[in-house]
Amino acid sequence: MTTFKFPNDFIFGSATSSYQIEGAYKEGGRGMSIWDTFARTPGKVENGDTGDLACDSYHLYKEDVQLLKNMGAKAYRFSVAWPRIIPVGDGAVNQEGLDYYHRLVDELLANGIEPMCTLYHWDLPQALQDKGGWESRETIAAFVRYAETMFKSFAGKIKNWITFNEPWCVSFLSNEIGAHAPGKTDFQAALDVAHHLLVAHGETVKRFRELGVDGAIGIAPNTEWFEPFSTKQEDIDACARRNAYFNGWFFDPVFKGHYPQLALDWYKAKGYEPPVQPGDMETIAQPIDFLGINYYTGGVGRNNPEEGLLEFEIVDAAFDKTDFDWNIYPQGFYSVLTWVKANYGDIPIYITENGAYYDSDEDNGKYHDPKRIEYLRKHLIQLNRALASGVNVKGYFLWSLMDNFEWAFGYSKPFGLVHVDFKTFKRTPKDSYYWYKQVIAEGGLES
Ligand code: PNW
Fold first, then answer.
1. For residue 370, how far is its CA from the centre of ligand 1 (angstroms)?
2. What is the signed CA dihedral for 428, 430, 435, 441, rounded to 10 degrees?
3. Does 173 contact ligand 1 (Cβ within 6 A)?
4. What residues sit in the active site (predicted)?
5. What would the pLDDT profile of 264-306 be if each residue is shown by its tens digit?
6. Domains of the chain, with CATH numbers?
7. Long-range contacts of range 104-112, CB-CB < 8 Å, 24 or more positions apart?
C-alpha cells in the first residue's frame, strides 16, 4: 500500500457550467445563447435534449451549495451565462442576471466555499452569433465589456477569474469538427475563432489590471496527451503536430507571444493562417496569475498521410475506456503537467476539470459508480507525481459536481458525483461523492 498525500493548503473542489446546470432559460431576463439554438437544431444533440431545464440550479443553487459543503469542497468553479448579464451580448446590462450570481456567490461565501468564476463556458449570446460570433473581431470588445461588468459587480467577492474554458473546444471542436455550437466545419473559421478568443483573453487581462481588481485571473485550456506509437521519426513528428494543434496552439501565444512555428508552417502550406494584426500577440501574452488545466484523455498516435489535415491518426491500442469511449490515460495527465513546467515555467496551476462519464447502478436509491472512483483515483495519483516533481499545482476541481447537460450527448452521459433525476431534479450523492469526501477529509488517498 502506498499513501499519496497532498499539501495541507491544497484546494479540493468541484466544477460545473451555466448552460449545463442552470435551466430557467427564459427567466430573469436571460437572452438566448448559441447553445439554445444548437440544441434546437435537429440532429445536433442526442435525443433532442436541451438545457431549457437542466438541473434547475437557477432555483436550486442552495441545494448545490449544501452538496459542496457536505462534501468538504473548499472551492467551487462555476460559469456565468453571458446572456443573463447582457442578453443581446453588447447592449444593456440585466440587473436580474447579476442578482442571480450574487445570490449564488453569497451562498458560497456564507458556507466557506471560495468561488472560482469562469466568464465564458460556451454560451455566447445568439445576437452576437448573428453578427458573426467569434469569427468577427467585434465580439472581442463585447466580451471585454461583459467581463468588466462582472469584475465591477463582484469586486471583493470573487477572487479567482477564468476568461475562457477550453479554447480548443470553442474553436476547433465547434468550427472545424462541428460537434458543438455553432456547428461549422471550416478550418479557417476555427483559426479565426481561436485567434479572436485569444485576443479577447489578452484584452480582458489588460482591463483586469487597469481596473486594479483585487484577485487573480487565468485561462483554462483543455489538454490531451498523445505519445508516438513507435520510435519512427514520422510518428514522433505526427505527435508533435497533434500536440501543437491541440495544446501548443493556445499555450504558446499566452506564455510566449507566438503561435507554434511547426503548426503555423503546416497550416500555411495548406493555405490557412490565423488573422493576426499588429500588436495582437503582445496583447495575448499579458502575464496571467494562474493556469487552469482540463485533462480527460490521451493515448498513442502515429503518422498517416490519409488522415485529414494533420495527417495524424489515433491508434486504438486497446487502452481501457470510459463509457464515453475516451481512453483512460492517467500517465498523460502527469506528462501534460511536467510538459507545462518544462516549457512554460512555474506558474500556479489549478486542475480546472478532470472526471469521467460512467453509468451507475441504482440499488434501493443508492448509486454505485466504482469505475468513476477508479478513474479518479488513477488521475489523482498522477497528479500527486506531478506535485512531487515540483509542478506548482494549487488545487483540483473535479468535473462534475452533478449529472448535467453533457453538450452534444444531452442527458445521456452525465459526469456527476451526484445523481440528478431530470424529472424531479432530486439530487442523490453517488458512491464517488462519498469517496471524494474522504479524499478531501484525509488530504490524500491510498493505492
Ligand atoms: C469539457 N472533445 O468538454 C467541458 O469543459 C465540460 O463542459 C464537459 O462537460 C466535460 O469536458 C466533459 O465532456 C469537452 O470532444 C467536450 O474533445 C468534448 C471534448 C473535450 C472537452
1. 21
2. -10
3. yes
4. 166, 353
5. 999 999 999 999 999 999 999 999 999 999 999 999 999 999 9
6. 3-446 (3.20.20.80)
7. 104/61, 104/65, 104/78, 105/154, 105/157, 105/158, 106/157, 107/61, 107/62, 107/65, 108/65, 108/68, 108/76, 109/157, 111/65, 111/66, 111/68, 111/69, 112/69, 112/74
ipTM of the prediction: 0.90
Q: Is 311 a catalytic site residue? A: no
Q: Which of 289, 135, 145 is nearest to 219 (CA)?
A: 289
Atom 16 of ligand 1, residue of closest alpha carbon:
169
For position 257, what pLDDT does the model report? 98
As given in the structure block, the three cell numbers for residue 233 are 521519426
Rg (CA), the chain: 21
Q: What pLDDT, in 10s, does the model give residues 133-182?
A: 999 999 999 999 999 999 999 999 999 999 999 999 999 999 999 999 99
- 446 catalytic per annotation: no
Measured CA to CA, the distance from residue 26 to residue 5 in angstroms comes to 46
| pLDDT computed for residue 369 by the predictor | 98
Q: Is the distance from the beta carbon of residue 404 to the nearest atom of ligand 1 less than 6 Å?
A: no
Alpha-carbon dihedral 53, 59, 64, 66, rounded to 10 degrees: -160
Bridge partners of 162, per DSSP, are: 118, 218
- Ligand 1 within 6 A of CB of 403: no
SS3 285: coil
166 grid coordinates? 477550453
* Stretch 80-108: mean pLDDT: 98
Q: For residues 429 and 253, what is the distance between their CA atoms, to the nearest angstrom? A: 41
Query: Is cis: bond before 400, omega within 30 of 0?
Result: yes
